[in-house]
Structure of LamB/YcsF family protein:
Amino acid sequence: MIHLDINCDMAEGFSRGRQSEDLGIMKWITSVNIACGLHAGDPHIICRTIEAALRHDVKIGAHPGYADIQGFGRRSMNLSVNEVYELVLYQVAALAGTTKALGGELHHVKLHGALYNEAAERPELAEAVVQAIADIDEELILYALSGSKLVEAGLEHGLQVAEEVFAERAYLPNGRLAPRELEGSVLISKEERMEQTRQLVLKQRVKTVNGEHVDLAADTLCVHHESHDILQFLVEVHKWAKQNDVKIEPITAR
């Protein structure tokens, strides 16, 4: 049997009103990545999202990014290695403490946006990120882009690593995500997303933007709450999983 975690980035709004968990997504995912307040989120939505995750028995992760609210953390900040270390340390510690205060326990860490992409490529940034996580809690699971430098750094440091793939993002021939400014970088149709999910989960490979295929390990599948017809897509994934001997469940800490 194939085991698959489904994760989703959340708490990326700024209000006391209705939050993304009200969409019903928590029912269909097994882990959630909660923004830590620098690229998005505020104390209120962070707490509400943690509480929703606890109600649904969804594993809670910190989702740190660059301090870039205007750019939603998708712009490079050109920080030093030490500054990246401190940035990640601060955000993960804040999410871990808030989660503990609300009766939960932090399960994993997944970077956001430009920091996610840059740590996937630059070994020195990957090392800074991994060191920050390990200095807080070496039992935390690192969610990292499949086949990336961050995966390598995490494993070298002895962290448990979950290699992440994406249901609705197009891939380049080198196994990296296609830049968002590239036309077709985000898959819109449910059929496209389902086909990519099937390929990633069952065959551990993905079709790239130039029609080639690249092999990728798929421990956890990322979906985005703002994606078109996200609930219908998640329901379809669960239905497909049952028919194909794929067990959707959270990643267990070793």
User: Anything to note?
Assistant: Strands lie at 2-10, 31-35, 59-63, 106-110, 141-145, 160-166, 205-207, 213-215, 220-224, 246-248. Residues 26 and 53 are 7 Å apart (CA to CA). The first strand starts at residue 2 and ends at 10.
